[in-house]
Amino acid sequence: MIANAERVGPAMPSKRLVVGHAAWWIAKPRARPPAPRTQMAAIRDEESAARKLSFADAVKDLLQNLSFHCYGKLVEHGRGIQERFFWLICHITALTMLIAFVWGTYKDATDELVTTLYDPLYAVSKVPLPAVTVCSQNRLSRRAVWRYAQELSSKDPRHRNATYFYTELRAFSLYYGIDENIDDERVLRLQSLLDHLDTRPHDLFFNPKDRLRILTPKCSDILVSCRLGGRPFDCVQGFRETLSSFGFCCTFNYNGRYVNARSYYQHFFGSDMGLILTLRAAVDDRFSDKNDQDGFSIAINEIHNYPDPQSGGVTVRYVKTGRSTYLPVRPRILETLQEARRMRPAVRKCRFWDEMPHNFTRHYTFSKCISACRAHSIYSLCHCLPFQLPMHYVVGATGRLFCTLRHMQCLRHYTFKWKNVITSREYVPGLEHEMVDALYCPQCLPSCSEIRYNVRGAGALTLHNPFGHMTNVHSGNISSPGNNNYGHDSSELAAVRIYFAETHIQYFRQIIKNDWYEIFSTIGNICGIIAGFSLIGICELLFFVAKQLWHAYKAERKSDLFHTHTRSRARTRANGRAKATQQRQPMELLILP
């Protein structure tokens, strides 16, 4: 037995699991050690001690056991007031820097999108051709106006001749912003005649849109020959009559026929491989005697866009007759990734093409939005809509009144407002009145994805019989090459070459600058470096706050129950005393005879 005891050795003391001193593990901080009593009695003592712990002692215990760095030195025993004050200043400075850095990170994160160069050598053969709009500076055809004057003369009950109406119809130049110095009374008198003589049975007023469509020079009269990629094509089939801010014009590639990628030999690079147009401005068809009527306006923009230079997104160049004009186009592509759709437009500061589909023929662009905003303002202030603007830009305006000569005074009055558009208001010293008078369109944001067709390096050469090598293609009839075989005076003709100036372009993309996990990581690094914060420490702090709130709630609830029970006992005692008093009242003795 002794040998076995020696072999086993001395008896080992019994081990006990000791709980850590961190605030996260202490169920009841600062509780006294349990007495050697029963387990239920020990639990009741711990609960009683926890309830007696003051808030100041609880905060002190939290700071001593918190995982954050150096917060325990504020309440550590044995440190002097100077050292505690030093650590307090250090913590306040660290918290101030932390707030400043976190706020700067948040402000920087609000700029959600960043533009990067996706492809510096993107092949131009993959770039869609732009829409090209050709507008004659001679907005009214003299022959068409003369026929219209004869028509009005035949309907006039006073039988005035066509020359009278032809002279009065010069007021139609006001529709295009051309000031002819015509008396307002004559303009109003002409409008009254038109309302009486040129009104269809289903119209209540004169319709200037249909009439000006007839009076505008036709595309077949303007376009003499057309070539694309070195090959001729029918101008009438390739161009379409459309509306623009200049009025009725002729547009090439309006429906996006040349959007798809093309082969290398159809990349339209170089002045001989692009779009080559021969335009004619007939001298004998000019309605106005001004010298600026012998040219053309060329608008180059993205397809599905409304050609309005005042709304942006459109490049306009003016072409003179008797010259060969070169318009080198340098596209720039900007694309926003689809992941940005989950962000609000006000945050990403742009709109995708399918956002706000109403009023924009299901294809939003910044230029369309500005034009629609201007149309709303015109319709609200002058109660009419200019014939140049599409009707669907104003909801409920279909079938309403177009602006006639009677509205010209109102349109001239607000010209400054409609030519100055702002999308956001910022205080600029000295421009207070301009900001108030300008047209405010806060709903118009830039397009998230777009193609900009910039024209840089344009030039013009004198036209010296340049058409000998070209072929006249008009309405399907192809004539043989010759020396100016178009049958027109060279001074009436203008050659325009629209082509891509580069074989490769830059492709830009807008991506999300910081995703949520990147922002979380950045803020976590800042908090850890400056103040020593950690996720566990934050959980400890939240646990402490929740625990204190729970204890306060229980104390308040216990106090309410105590007061309720006290009032109930007082009420019961009062009722008992009242009943006892009633029972102790003397009884009346009734003596019967």
From TrEMBL:
Q: Where in the cell is it found?
A: Membrane
Protein's UniProt keywords contain Transmembrane: yes
| Listed GO CC annotations | plasma membrane
Query: Transmembrane among the record's keywords?
Result: yes
What does the record say about its membrane topology?
Multi-pass membrane protein
* Gene Ontology molecular function terms on file: ligand-gated sodium channel activity
List the keywords (alphabetical): Ion channel, Ion transport, Membrane, Sodium, Sodium channel, Sodium transport, Transmembrane, Transmembrane helix, Transport
Query: Which InterPro entries does the annotation name?
Result: ENaC
Q: Which domain of life is it from?
A: Eukaryota
Q: Using the UniProt record, give the first listed, main subcellular location.
A: membrane
Transmembrane spans: 85-106, 519-545
Entries under PANTHER family matching the protein: AMILORIDE-SENSITIVE SODIUM CHANNEL-RELATED, PICKPOCKET 18-RELATED
Similarity comment: family membership = Belongs to the amiloride-sensitive sodium channel (TC 1.A.6) family.
Record-given protein name: Sodium channel protein Nach
Q: Which organism is it from?
A: Drosophila mojavensis
